Request: fold
Amino acid sequence: MGRAWLRTILDDAEVELAGVVDLDLGTAAAAVADAGVPDVPLGRDAVELARATGADALVNVTVPRAHHPVTTAALFAGLPVLGEKPVAEDVAQALSLVAAAEVTGELFVVSQSRRYNAHLFAFREQARAVGDPGVLTTEFFKAPRFGGFREEMAHPLLLDMAIHPFDTARFLLGAEPVSVYCEEFNPSWSWYAGDAAATAVFEMTGGVRYVYTGSWCSPGQETSWNGSWRLSGSAGTARWDGDSAPVLETSSGAAPAPSADPGREIAGSLRAFTRALRAGTAPMGEVHENVLSLAMVEAAVASAASGARVLVDDVLERAHERALAGERREDVRAVLASWTSVREALAAGTPATAATQPAQPAQPAQPVA
Reply:
């Protein structure tokens, strides 16, 4: 993903690559050489290199366990951050990052890159035309043989992949998770050590149900990487195969409004981040808005382990307790301690300008490290 982000930054005329950071400078040097920019400054510490080069922002493409320390250091150095998903290794660390963003006043955005899809935006407009929504379903069936860590994980499907459709469900419905019942299992022919299949039923705000069924060891008739979607409402149904344009059928025959083109995947995420910095607004994925997507994953794993329905607020409150107990910065701990409700704190901190603002005109390039 580091190399993918490197190519994306170099291809965006509105940003300038200020430097590349890696604990292994040889890896960094090989990446910039392969990208055709061998003279780009390199370093082992992101904050130090940003200060040395005059960079305005940081793109954090580290592994999940490094998301919290790297992002925290950048925010307190006065650097806005665009980070890879998940926001952090767990919800407790995610809440610490929310508080750090509040203390510093810096923008921290999580790149939920699969939101940046023109067909998904069209599907969301169709979702508004089906009347009162009743049930949203996702089917996800793939059979990748990754090798490496994914095939050794305890919860490979839920932890590494399901956050994408869970986040998409929130985006489509404009609703938040209330509870989940999840069963996780591993088919007899699975090549994964952990459970590679799951079904989860979420209650969302407003009483809508979101049902996810997926498997990472289902060869033949595979779905899109985005999954196959169906939304049923009081006035009709919308369907999306994850790859092509969605289809709508309503009793009124009403056509949805045209949707904007958000850009494509990480390129769209980068463009939204940099334009939000210039405009002083918040794009999709701002950290307050993003945490509940990770909470859905953590709640689903907890439900599968316990065999019981799990309330998302219980997951949030337990994470809050762990965040308070583990926080080392007094200023961040003070913000965490001021929250009487995690859900309310996340909602209060989420800017209302995130999801559907028109793109701002291009401005002169700004460095990104």
Notes: The radius of gyration is 21 Å.
